[in-house]
């Protein structure tokens, strides 16, 4: 039996612990935070995430998908809120397809509880990883409560300790390890739309709400308790920015002018604006994701991306299902398994990082644009008639298991085909014609 050590019991680490246990390994999981098993998240303030097909696949493997479905809200499309209050709806995929709003804390807690069901899993909380000896496979921890230092050895170390990973920091000191970190000029702030008095939602809970405004945007995802978690994506500096909104009057004037229909739904807007931090957004890339047969990076520690495709956690969960597939293929040949994992996953991590950045522009700028919506309508028509020839990029990323790198490449080809179609002067009148359809199909 191999002794696996998982550093970080966040979303990816706790799921990976379940899969390792299912494969029969002895698993020790460490996290610098306290034990969240006894925390009741539902009903309290909750931050949610959009979960889609790649994530569901890994949750199925872990045997926890139904449990998570029970605490999630399907969102079948986006609702765009224009400045004048008009709302347009755009379905995300085909009939029956949806992304799901899931409470982050409760999801993490359920995954940890699932891991704890296995006799071969030991959980250690309040233990901060401080160093790793990559050659020996030993990890040093500091007990946050007692200050005591502990060193423990393992056959494999999984670095699932998030964007500012201590495991990756150690790999950065090894030869030929590439690393880059890039902050966006924009950050985010979480706000809240509370439930109605009877606990119902103030807007359609089965849609992801977007207020696209060019340089910035507001989004809202429903929570089970009737509230919505609202996120403002906004520049840190500049004419209209976190820095420039420096008085209550300026904050209120900005919201009333820009997000007029949202303001009456947010009675604690000013309080939330002041109390919640303006958090930064970072893109982290590195390569390789392994150190020989000893260390493997997974989740945000290997690929932190911006949240605009709702794929950060989903790609991390896909790391886990890919780990499972390769474990079946390579058995206990860890050197071959870790090498292939890094070679297969790293280009896909890069691709979803690019796609996520690209989608920021689409969300904050284009979803409110009539020509953009027409383009999507044409693609949807082609998709419904020729599903084996054309799958829209959003569907490939969100509803399929096509490798992200392939989705990015196919998406670029589709863009090349659609650009001249959209440039036709009569496209608004002719979009549904056989001629337009033939022009697209002849390119495929
Ligand atoms: C605003 C925002 C919105 C998002 N929305 C979505 C979404 O809709 N859909 C989606 O798929 N993704 C989304 N994401 C991305 C998602 O949150 C991350 O991809 C996901 O949390 C990564 O999981 P992880 O387990 O790799 O890292 P984390 O969740 O960061 O977990 C890391 C764990 O490691 C522990 N740790 C850290 N350092 C140490 C140490 N030195 N020693 C021991 N333990 C340590 C931490 O305590 C933590 O428990 C969003 C991100 C942001 C910022």
Account of the 3D structure:
This protein is of the alpha+beta class and 444 residues long. It folds into three domains: 3-181 and 281-359, FAD/NAD(P)-binding domain (3-Layer(bba) Sandwich); 185-279; 369-441, no CATH class. The chain contains 14 helices and 20 strands. An eight-stranded mixed sheet has the order 6-5-14-15-16-13-17-20, with helices on both faces. A six-stranded mixed sheet has the order 8-2-1-12-19-18. Strands 3-7-4 form a three-stranded antiparallel sheet. Bound molecules: flavin-adenine dinucleotide. Flavin-adenine dinucleotide (FAD) is lined by residues 7-13, 30-33, 49-50, 128-129, 160-162, 166, 188, 231, 299-300, 307, 310-314, 316.
Summed up:
By secondary structure, the chain is α+β, with helices and mostly antiparallel strands. It has helices spanning 11-22, 53-61, 65-69, 104-116, 166-171, 248-258, 269-275, 312-330, 334-366, 370-385, 393-399, 404-423, 427-430, 434-441; strands spanning 3-7, 26-30, 48-51, 73-75, 77-81, 87-91, 99-103, 121-124, 127-133, 138-143, 149-153, 156-159, 178-193, 207-212, 217-222, 228-235, 279-287, 290-291, 295-297, 303-304.
Tally the helices.
14
CATH fold name of the largest domain, please?
FAD/NAD(P)-binding domain
CATH superfamily of the largest domain: FAD/NAD(P)-binding domain
Main sheet summary: 8 strands, mixed
Beta-strand level of the residues, as a percent range?
A: 15-25%
Whole-number count of domains: 3
Give the class-level CATH name of the largest domain.
Alpha Beta
Give the strand line-up of the largest sheet. 6-5-14-15-16-13-17-20
At CATH level 2, the architecture of the largest domain is: 3-Layer(bba) Sandwich
| Rg over C-alpha atoms, rounded to the nearest angstrom | 23 Å
Class by alpha and beta content = alpha+beta
């Amino acid at each position: 039996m191999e002794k696996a050590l998982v550093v970080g019991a966040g979303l990816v680490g706790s799921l990976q612990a379940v899969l390792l246990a299912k494969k029969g390994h002895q698993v020790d999981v460490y996290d610098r935070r306290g034990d969240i098993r006894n925390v009741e998240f539902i009903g309290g303030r909750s931050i949610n995430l959009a979960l889609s097909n790649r994530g569901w696949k890994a949750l199925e493997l872990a045997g926890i998908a139904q449990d998570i479905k029970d605490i999630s809200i399907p969102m079948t499309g986006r609702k765009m809120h224009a400045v004048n209050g008009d709302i347009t709806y755009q379905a995300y995929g085909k009939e029956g397809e949806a992304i799901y709003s899931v409470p982050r804390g409760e999801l993490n807690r359920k995954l940890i509880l699932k891991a704890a069901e296995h006799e071969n899993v030991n959980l250690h909380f309040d233990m901060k990883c401080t160093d790793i000896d990559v050659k020996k496979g030993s990890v040093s921890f500091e007990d946050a409560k007692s200050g005591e230092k502990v060193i423990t050895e393992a056959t494999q170390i999984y670095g699932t300790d998030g964007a500012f990973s201590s495991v990756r920091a150690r790999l950065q000191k090894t030869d030929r390890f590439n690393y880059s970190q890039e902050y966006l000029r924009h950050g985010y702030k979480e706000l809240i739309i509370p439930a109605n008095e009877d606990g119902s939602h103030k807007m359609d809970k089965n849609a992801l709400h977007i207020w696209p405004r060019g340089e910035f945007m507001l989004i809202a995802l429903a929570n089970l308790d009737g509230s919505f978690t609202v996120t403002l994506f906004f520049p840190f500096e500049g004419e209209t920015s976190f820095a420039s909104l420096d008085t209550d009057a300026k904050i209120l004037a900005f919201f009333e002018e820009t997000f007029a229909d949202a303001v009456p739904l947010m009675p604690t807007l000013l309080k939330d604006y002041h109390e919640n931090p303006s958090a930064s957004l970072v893109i982290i890339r590195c390569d390789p994701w392994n150190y020989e047969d000893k260390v493997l990076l997974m989740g945000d520690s290997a690929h932190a991306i911006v949240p605009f495709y709702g794929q950060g956690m989903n790609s991390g969960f896909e790391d886990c299902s890919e780990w499972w597939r390769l474990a079946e293929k390579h058995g206990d040949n860890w050197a071959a398994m870790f090498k292939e994992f890094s070679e297969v996953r790293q280009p896909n991590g890069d691709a979803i990082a690019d796609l996520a950045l690209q989608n920021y522009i689409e969300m904050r700028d284009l979803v409110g644009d009539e020509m953009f919506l027409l383009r999507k309508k044409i693609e949807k028509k082609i998709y419904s008639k020729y599903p084996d020839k054309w799958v829209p990029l959003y569907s490939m990323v969100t509803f399929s298991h096509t490798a992200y790198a392939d989705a990015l490449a196919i998406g670029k080809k589709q863009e090349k085909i659609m650009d001249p179609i959209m440039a036709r002067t009569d496209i608004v009148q002719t979009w549904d014609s056989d001629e337009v359809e033939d022009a697209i199909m002849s390119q495929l």
